[in-house]
Amino acid sequence: MSVVAPCPSVRPALTPSWTESRSRAEAARLLHPSGAGSAAVVAPDVLEAMAVRLALATGPDDLAVDEDDTGECQTRRHRQLVLTPAYDAWLIAWGPSSLLELHDHGGSIGAGRVVAGELIEMYSDVVRPHPLRSRAVGRRSGFGVPATRAHEVWNPGPCLALSVHLYSPPLMAMTFFDHHPDRFLCPLRTEYGDAASLDSAPGVG
């Protein structure tokens, strides 16, 4: 077993606004064990602030990635960090070239934060479909995931990418979609279950 080293980069300076400060305070409350009992859906800005806090507390040592038989790590590993009635959180390690195909999150809203490396997100909307749009998300950058988003996420490499992902309500289903132009966003399969069973499914992202 070996760990692929992340690409180095410079952490940007942040100057929080009043709204960001409020979101961060609520994020800190919800991440504390005493504040995790409510089943209310977490607001998107608070979920994103929670992703920031969790990203600061994680690193490559928290989730090692095995090398495959060719010596190039091309797998994805994930681990659940937190599960509450209101949200859950995941840590995902993306080997170079690893990909999670086009999918939704069963109506949950989400937030992601890249801890190391870079991810590419290609996305559309299941209610108001549009051609796939693409964006790169680098280290210490984040992205929101609306409840109706369908997206594909991959690591362009050459280094390991590490990211944290939060969902509210907790992730309970994922539908995977066709991205062929003639069958765009046609459902291919849906995986159901609680967060623990989805942890053993082909992918979370």
List the helices and strands and how they pair.
Blueprint: H1 18-31, H2 44-56, E1 76-83, E2 88-94, E3 99-103, E4 109-116, E5 118-125, E6 133-138, E7 142-145, E8 149-154, E9 161-168, E10 173-177, E11 187-192, H3 195-198
Helix pairs in contact: 1-2
Brief write-up:
The protein is of the alpha+beta class and 205 residues long. The chain has helices at 18-31, 44-56, 195-198, and strands at 76-83, 88-94, 99-103, 109-116, 118-125, 133-138, 142-145, 149-154, 161-168, 173-177, 187-192.
Structural account:
- This protein has 205 residues and is an alpha+beta fold.
- It is built from three helices and eleven strands; from the N terminus they run H-H-E-E-E-E-E-E-E-E-E-E-E-H.
- The protein has helices spanning 18-31, 44-56, 195-198; strands spanning 76-83, 88-94, 99-103, 109-116, 118-125, 133-138, 142-145, 149-154, 161-168, 173-177, 187-192.
- The strands form three sheets. The protein has a five-stranded antiparallel sheet with strand order 1-2-9-4-7, covered by helices on one side. Strands 3-8-5-6 form a four-stranded antiparallel sheet, with no helix packed on it. The chain has a two-stranded antiparallel sheet with strand order 10-11.
- It is globular and about 45 Å long.
